[in-house]
Amino acid sequence: MHTGQLLGSGRTADVYALDGSWVLRRYRYRTDVTEELAVMSYVGAFGFPVPRIGPPAEGARPTDLVLQRLTGPTLAEALLAGRLGAAEAGALLARLLRELHAIPPRVSTNPEDCVLHLDLHPENVMLTAEGAVVIDWSSAAEGPPGLDRAMSALTLARIALDPAFPAGADVRPLLAALLAELADDGGASAADLALARTRQQENPYLTEAERERLEGAVDLVLDTVP
């Protein structure tokens, strides 16, 4: 099938323009997107902010997703540009996690489980004129909400310890703001962080340097917990 301009590339997928309304998200290492579509449709039905899902494009591959084309910066871009501060960004991430975890599980029979994004960080939040929209549901699963909180906190801490991160972009205030906002929800416990660390350690798309920072990232989260 014909794809338009390459709009962006991540660890596992490329995003192409189809027209002014739709984009094509094409995964490089997956076999299909059935589960991701199901999760997005499910949480969207509860009013959670996800991109609209478009009809399959003619000649699409099993690893293709047609999604609403969103206009606006990512939360990461807005932070780097100084358009909002750490406190506001932390409150937004916490609110999105809280709202997601209020949605009952789609397949699990455990009433304590909920839908988990498992990769909710500033690069996966788009700030559109209609509000924040959460993208990239490829890691979504179901389980205890503490794991999702720990995954977000651990990712921020890992980025904070990355010497290659842009100078002047201190992630620690955002981590502190997020953990303060999540404190009443249970925060990120040591047990949840251990599970999150194992999950990230086993992520084949992390670099070896990122894996080596995980132990320090766990310590940073625990040291930052209010």
List keywords for this structure.
single chain; alpha+beta; two-stranded antiparallel ribbon; 8 helices
Task: Give an overview of the whole structure.
- It is a single chain.
- By secondary structure, this protein is of the alpha+beta class.
- 39% of the residues lie in helices and 15% in strands.
- It has eight helices and eight strands.
- Strands 1-2-3-4 form a four-stranded antiparallel beta sheet, with no helix packed on it.
- The protein is globular and about 50 Å long.
Q: What order do the helices and strands come in, and which of them pair?
A:
Layout: E1 6-9, E2 13-17, E3 22-27, H1 34-45, E4 64-68, H2 75-80, H3 86-101, E5 114-116, E6 125-128, E7 131-134, E8 141-143, H4 145-160, H5 172-182, H6 190-201, H7 208-212, H8 214-224
Antiparallel strand pairs: 1-2, 2-3, 3-4, 5-8, 6-7
Helix pairs in contact: 3-5, 4-5, 4-6, 4-8, 6-8
Given helix and strand content, the structural type is: alpha+beta
N-to-C terminal Cα separation, in Å? 51 Å
Q: Care to count the β-strands?
A: 8
The helix count comes to 8
**Helix share, percent:** 25-40%
Strand order of the largest sheet: 1-2-3-4
State the major sheet: 4 strands, antiparallel
Rg result: 17 Å
Shape: globular
Order of helices and strands: EEEHEHHEEEEHHHHH
Q: How much strand?
A: 15-25%
Instruction: Please state the average pLDDT score.
Output: 92
Residue stretches low in confidence (pLDDT < 50, at least 5 long) are none
InterPro entries: Aminoglycoside_PTrfase, Kinase-like_dom_sf
Pfam families: APH
Protein name: Aminoglycoside phosphotransferase family protein
Organism: Streptomyces filamentosus (Streptomyces roseosporus)
